């Protein structure tokens, strides 16, 4: 696990993501770190570096699934208290 607030971890993360890999790399970014992650990505010009190394970048968000799961969990919790 990396701490996006630590410069050393930031460098390590983006260096690893921009390096060619035999398998797909998945990064799970906590909701609270989204803005910082994407700001750092833009500031470091990650996408250009990755393209220069023929590394394809694909972003997907699963936040909507989490939100619906959390709402369902709250509903179930409220129902069980009644």
Labels describing this entry:
82 residues, 4 helices
Structure annotation, total helices: 4
Structural class: mainly alpha
Total beta strand runs? 0
Q: Roughly what is the average pLDDT, rounded to an integer?
A: 79
Low-confidence stretches: none
Task: Give the proportion of residues in helices.
Answer: 55-70%
Please report which band the strand proportion falls in: under 5%, 5-15%, 15-25%, 25-35%, 35-45% or over 45%.
under 5%
Rg for CA atoms? 17 Å
Shape: globular
Instruction: Give the H and E element order.
Output: HHHH
Taking the sheet with the most strands, its summary is: none
Question: What topology emerges from the helices and strands here?
Answer:
Blueprint: H1 7-18, H2 34-43, H3 46-52, H4 63-81
Describe the structure.
1% of the residues are buried. This protein has helices at residues 7-18, 34-43, 46-52, 63-81. The chain has four helices and no strands. Helix content is 59%, strand content 0%.
């Amino acid at each position: 696990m990396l701490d996006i607030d630590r410069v050393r971890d930031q460098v390590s993360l983006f260096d690893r993501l921009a390096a060619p890999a035999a398998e797909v790399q998945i990064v799970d970014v906590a909701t609270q770190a989204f803005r910082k992650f994407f700001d750092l990505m833009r500031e470091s010009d990650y996408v250009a570096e990755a393209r220069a190394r023929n590394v394809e970048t694909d972003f997907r968000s699963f936040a909507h699934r989490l939100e619906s799961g959390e709402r369902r969990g709250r509903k179930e919790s409220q129902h069980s208290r009644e």
